[in-house]
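note to self — DONT lose this again. spent like an hour looking for the file last time. sequence + predicted structure for the chain T wanted, 84 res
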Amino acid sequence: MNFYVYVLRSLKVERYYIGQTEDLADRLRRHNGGRVRSTKAYRPWSIVYFEKYETRAAAVRREQELKDLKGTARFLKLIGVAKW
């Protein structure tokens, strides 16, 4: 089984969301379907970056690392966004 750390970008406002899941496609559907309270108001979303891990523990660690970087130039460079 694989686990993914992902970064979503709101197509509505300047906002990113970082999470982890076992199923990227289903998770994106949940975000865009309004089934995730923290992202509902900023729909629609697109996946702009993801990484694959073999364990959930590794994915959770990386998710936290990315959350700590969020909003920095290093974070934007990692996900391939020079500027909004």
